[in-house]
């Protein structure tokens, strides 16, 4: 389930921007947005390598996670790992938002980055990065440990694959539309040496 920008009826709005390695048609990076009754799961994955084989691994992983009813990041990553055994594998950052608790649980395996940028820059810490544990889903899994963080209306969740250069955080205007932020990061920080994908989500919380 690959999401398009949407927001009007949900406590979260999001947008995805992506680009394959120059000279390639297939994209080995992919994203999942899975709404639930009281929450939502976001994931960004990077099939190892690039081209058609990487795209195939990515599609399999996203399909398995998208078709399962669970909203648990641990459960979804374990299912993805089982489906990709004997494959080239993928790296992943995944977050599950709980609308009732105003809380996010996330984890990362490999080099897909994710960060939470607070709407209020005076809140400490104003930005938090997911802990990226070494490993490959489907090949060499580390011990899975999640981290839970409180989230507030206006907070931004930003995922980026390793086809994006670091340092884009200083270019972000927090109140810009999520689609503008995603495409601006892609256009200005695309390395050009690998597939690249950016997913940006803004949490609004439940409306009273």
Q: How big is the Rg?
A: 16 Å
Anisotropy-based shape: globular
Structure classification: alpha+beta
Name the beta content range. Answer: 25-35%
Report the order of strands and helices.
Answer: EEEHHEEEEEEEHE
Q: Tell me, rounded to a whole number, the average pLDDT.
A: 92
End-to-end separation: 29 Å
Helix content: 10-25%
What is the β-strand count? 11
Low-confidence residue ranges: 1-7
Structure in a nutshell:
By secondary structure, the chain is an alpha+beta fold.
Describe the 3D structure:
The chain contains three helices and eleven strands; from the N terminus they run E-E-E-H-H-E-E-E-E-E-E-E-H-E. It is an alpha+beta fold and 208 residues long. Strands 2, 3, 4, 5, 8 and 9 form a six-stranded mixed β-sheet that branches. The protein has a five-stranded antiparallel β-sheet with strand order 1-11-10-6-7, with helices on one face. It is globular.
Give the helices and strands, then pairings:
Elements: E1 12-19, E2 29-35, E3 39-47, H1 52-67, H2 73-83, E4 90-98, E5 103-109, E6 113-117, E7 127-129, E8 132-133, E9 147-150, E10 156-160, H3 178-189, E11 196-203
Parallel strand pairs: 5-8
Antiparallel strand pairs: 1-11, 2-3, 3-4, 4-5, 5-9, 6-7, 6-10, 10-11
Helix pairs in contact: 1-2
């Amino acid at each position: 389930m690959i999401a398009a920008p949407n927001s009007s009826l949900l406590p979260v709005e999001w947008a995805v921007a992506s680009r394959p390695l120059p000279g390639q048609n297939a994209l080995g990076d992919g994203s999942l947005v899975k709404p639930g009754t009281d929450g939502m799961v976001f994931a960004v994955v990077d099939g190892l390598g690039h081209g058609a084989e990487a795209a195939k691994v990515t599609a399999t992983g996203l399909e398995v996670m998208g078709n399962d009813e669970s909203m648990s990041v641990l459960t979804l990553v374990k299912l993805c790992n089982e489906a990709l055994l004997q494959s080239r594998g993928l790296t992943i950052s995944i977050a599950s938002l709980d609308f009732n608790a105003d809380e996010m649980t996330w984890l990362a395996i490999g080099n897909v980055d994710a960060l939470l940028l607070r709407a209020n820059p005076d809140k400490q810490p104003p930005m938090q990065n997911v802990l990226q544990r070494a490993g490959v889903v489907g090949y060499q899994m580390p011990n899975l440990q999640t981290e839970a963080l409180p989230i507030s209306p206006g907070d931004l969740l930003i995922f980026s694959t390793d086809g994006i250069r670091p340092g884009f955080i200083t270019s972000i205007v927090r109140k810009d539309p999520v689609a503008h932020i995603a495409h601006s990061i892609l256009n200005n920080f695309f390395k050009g040496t690998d597939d690249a994908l950016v997913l940006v989500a803004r949490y609004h919380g439940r409306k009273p």
